[in-house]
Amino acid sequence: STERTLVLVKPDGVSRGLTGAILARIEAKGYVLADLKLVHANREMLEQHYEEHVGKPFYEPLVEFMLSGPIVAATFEGQGVIAGFRSLAGATDPTTAAPGTIRGDFGRDWGLKVQQNLVHGSDSPESAERELGIWFA
Ligand code: CMP
Q1: How does strand 119-121 pair with strand 2-9?
Q2: ipTM reported for the complex, 2 dp
């Protein structure tokens, strides 16, 4: 069925000038851009967004990274877009994410305590609705 998902171009993607290239790949696969904005996140939003990671060793570096610059938030729609975008994004670790994926082609290890991996995509319909409520409140 038709789904929607939250895509974030994280601060590394925006600062490296990759926003257009990343959004173009998602559009080229056939998904439809339904909403788009530039967001300066705050701690409260990030604590909600990353609620399952609160307390993990990488949580604080992750929050600092997500506060380090603007983020581009997008809603994409289409049949199977949640799984389809995650496949296009590639594995969490950009060092080993497959070539042909966004993280595999554009990402690398920059030596920080957090994986700077360019994009986020919701992992289920429930997560998508919850996350869209945070970023497109
Ligand atoms: P994302 O899929 O947006 O959700 C959690 C983020 O935390 C993830 O992308 C990475 O940026 C980061 N992350 C996840 N696991 C680790 C880890 N083991 N070490 C460092 N950063 C991580």
Answers
A1: antiparallel
A2: 0.91
